[in-house]
Amino acid sequence: MRFGQLSVLTGLRYDIVRSDADSMNNGARTTGLDNQDRALSGSLGGLYEITPLLRPYANYARAFRAPGMRERYESGQRADGYYYAGSPEVEAEKAD
Q: In terms of residue numbers, what domain contains 27?
């Protein structure tokens, strides 16, 4: 949107990510494996044209990343030599 010398840009999204597994750790765990993450992410930015060559701006945004299936359910040795232990309780990442 443009209001004279001020331009405003907004964005909004709502994410729902569901995950589930029948078992993990070779069948050692079979319950508590379903998970759901929800997040409202958005951005708000403004640009003010003082002169054609001077246009300061500001921006605020929020990001969301749900854990992958490997992070939640798969445990084992990886190519980098480390052992990774999956956990269904891993929470989604949110950043401002």
A: 2-95
